[in-house]
Amino acid sequence: MIETIKANPIVSLVIVCSVVIPSTASITSFFYSNQLSNTISKYDAQIAMIKTESAKKLKLLEISIAQLKGNSAKNSTDKVHDFKAKTTDIQNPSIVSHVNTKMDYGPKTIFVISGVFLDKNGKLQNLTMEKSKSVKDDDIAVNYDLLPERREDRIPQRNEIHKFAELYDLTKPSKENPSLRFKEGDIAYWSEQQLSVWEIQLEFYSRSIVLKTADLNNALIPSQGDLSHFAQKLYPSLYEASREKWKLKINNKL
């Protein structure tokens, strides 16, 4: 076959040309395929971007709805003594999540649980809270609506302390540590501590965050003493957030 081709240069040229140069249909098909692939990739990228933007808008809408609900509850009650205005359920993650962390009257620092550490038996060993510029979907963040409204230095009555315990859902058994719910003996103990209203609120709120964190991480807390130990780790951050809230309220005359 090779000898025949060599003996006829014209035939050889034709054969070589027919092998090297693809047909017009092949070229058209090749470029059309590439163009289609590029178009599909472009649309896929656009779809992904639209999904991302939609998710962001949905999250903003959820935040706005939560704020409207919070405002409605506030406006319908007396801000000083009616603690039933804040009926957020500690079993609902929104009590310590980012959903309600945005105050209506100015910017603020966001505090989130940044680390949770368990031992090999599932007992809570440590947890940390730090400042953050933003929150993720699974973050546990301070809800500013549940911080003290003002620095009220008077000593609360026992029935008020009980209401605070209910506000932060400490009287209800938690999922992972039901035995740590507040009983009458715990209410009596806190009544004897002679702490001010705002101090009681921070003590109770720090404990509610610890218990919620334990629930979300399937962590065990052996005793009230351990609960108090972990709550003290969060107390300084809650106090700082409270001071910022008070300052903003004064500046805005709210």
Report what the structure shows.
- This protein is mainly alpha-helical and 254 residues long.
- The protein folds into two domains: 2-51; 77-251, no CATH class.
- It is built from seven helices and two strands, in the order αααββαααα.
- It has helices at residues 2-7, 9-20, 24-75, 158-167, 184-191, 197-216, 224-251; strands spanning 110-118, 124-132.
- A two-stranded antiparallel ribbon has the order 1-2.
- β1 and β2 form a beta hairpin.
- α4 (158-167) crosses α5 (184-191).
- The longest helix has 52 residues, at 24-75.
- Mean pLDDT is 75; it is low at 1-7, 10-20 and 71-107.
Q: What's the rounded overall pLDDT mean?
A: 75
* Overall number of structural domains: 2
Helix content: 40-55%
Task: Give the spatial strand order of the biggest sheet.
Answer: 1-2
Order of helices and strands: HHHEEHHHH
Strand-pairing-aware structural class: mainly alpha
Largest sheet: number of strands, sense, barrel closure: 2 strands, antiparallel
Unreliable spans are: 1-7, 10-20, 71-107
Topology readout:
Blueprint: H1 2-7, H2 9-20, H3 24-75, E1 110-118, E2 124-132, H4 158-167, H5 184-191, H6 197-216, H7 224-251
Antiparallel strand pairs: 1-2
Helix pairs in contact: 4-5, 6-7
Q: Nutshell version of this structure?
A:
By secondary structure, the chain is mainly alpha-helical. Helix content is 54%, strand content 7%. It has helices at residues 2-7, 9-20, 24-75, 158-167, 184-191, 197-216, 224-251; strands at residues 110-118, 124-132.
